[in-house]
Amino acid sequence: MKKTILLFAIFISVFSCKEDTTKTEITSVSKEDVQVFLDEYSTTFTKLYYDSALAEWDANTKIVAGDTTNAYKVQKANEAFAKFTGSTDVIEKTRKFLESKDDLDIVQVRQLNTILYSAANNPETVSDLVKERIAAENAQNEALFGYDFKVNGTSVTTGDIDKVLRESNNEAERLTNWEASKNVGVGLKDGLENLRKLRNETVGALGYDDYFSYQVSSYGMSRQEMRDEMNKMVKEVWPLYRELHTWARHELAKKFNADVPEYLPAHWLPNRWGQDWSSLVNVEGLDIDGVLADKDPEWIVKEGENFYKSIGFDALPASFYEKSSMYPLPADAPYKKNNHASAWHMNLENDLRCLMSVEPNADYYETIHHELGHIYYYQAYTNPNVPPLLREGANRGYHEAIGSLLGFAAMQKPFLEGKGLVDADVKIDETQNLLKEALSNIVFLPFSAGVMTEFENALYAENLPKDQFNKKWWELAKKYQGMVPPTDRGEEFCDAASKTHINNDAAQYYDYAVSYILLFQFHDHISKNILKQDPHATNYFGSKDVGTFLRGVLETGANNDWRELLKQSVGSEMSAKPMLEYFNPLMDYLKEQNKGRTHTLPETL
């Protein structure tokens, strides 16, 4: 999965004004008073937001072992954010203004709520705690992104490991690489425990029960409501997932000439966390890797931009190409960079960047369309109708949904035909293609809505003891994914921490689950009501009507009620129905394949 990674992803807001006005007691409130406050706040906010973004960018794109310069700059920039964001005076003023919210414009109320939400991450009343948390987060990121992965004593990249897990038929080689991918967690375990404490105590100062509850509150939901929503999603896709799990156990047993296991050994799967099994299926006629192998990586990026331009969006600014870090570092580079694909809205204006390591293959072809979805979302809501404080997705899941939607659309056969990447005369096995899509999209939900969400709930809300981190992780993986470790994984390990988001995008992974549900709702609407095409075989390229629809979703940013925006856009509330409808034709095939086989997952969770 790819996610927009700004390590200060929540708006860490700032405010300063003259001392003689900041301490004045507010006895009455007018729209004019509030607007003056918001304008002053936003001016300082955008400046310091950019300062922090620049420091974070450097820290992610040039990691030098033993060099503490970037860490120092990040520390100072984020401390500046924290100092102003959590100002007691700002909190008191904002609360006072919100007491008169019925007399204010809704846009003003939304901004005030954003300020108060942001302040909870950095309250002045626990400023020493905030400084300690910032330092701990920086240290955790350096340990994570600067880690030297080694296989048999040789340094490798995560991309090297991923390639082995996708392609190798040698079980011993797979096991060695899988174990190497998890070793990073060993040195992150103590840091994760410390971050749990600091994050919980920080937001607790403004009345939140725990950090998980704090993050969930941005959806207008309680912790339990979000967990209920996630469990509902998993239960809805469970019958299909159960069939996929049974099919995969048998297919992989044949591949490795082994007995059919009761649960899936983690190193058998083509993804480090078992969240995507799509490479288990090769759809003949859709050999995109082969077609792209001789392409230049920049060609991949330009193809993504051309797609967005074809549906009516503007060209990317020249600065995007000048300032982004798009390609793998040379093998002899004296530093490392974060290889996790991400999109950055540096200054909430026009400094837009991507951090990637693009290579000419199908994964990156889809990924560039995904990440540019974030970039064009940024561009769309950077307009006078959306104040800087509301320049984010309608909810965090919306951002991922748009990126994933365009990545999904770019991989459908008619689209690929139109781009000359697939021969129009080639006949593909539609069932196998649908199976491949299910092994990505359906398989992902038990991991995101189940394992990740429940682990972070246990970590933050239930104060999971450190000596149970690994036990809990694998209990959840077995329950929701039907996956088990290849060997005993004791508490000397912390396999959860090998997942980037556990460390620096904490307590938000349900965003992805939400995004997959929204993806299929948007795709269903576009294919049936705009393109008038089969949802399984669409071509968005060149459709200005698709662009108009998407712009209508994107251009208001967070200046809306996300539930109402969804109803207005697709005519319904959040629902897995379009996803289940899309994959419904696959059930008969899987049941036929699994006839006579034992299902080891329960019929219901």
Automatic annotation (TrEMBL):
UniProt entry keywords in alphabetical sequence: Disulfide bond, Glycoprotein, Signal
A Pfam family reported for this protein in Swiss-Prot or TrEMBL: Peptidase_M2
Coiled-coil residue windows: none
InterPro entries named among the record's database cross-references: Peptidase_M2 (IPR001548)
Lineage start: Bacteria, Pseudomonadati, Bacteroidota, Flavobacteriia, Flavobacteriales
TM region(s), chain numbering: none
Protein name, UniProt field: M2 family metallopeptidase
Organism field: Psychroserpens ponticola
Top-level taxonomic group: Bacteria
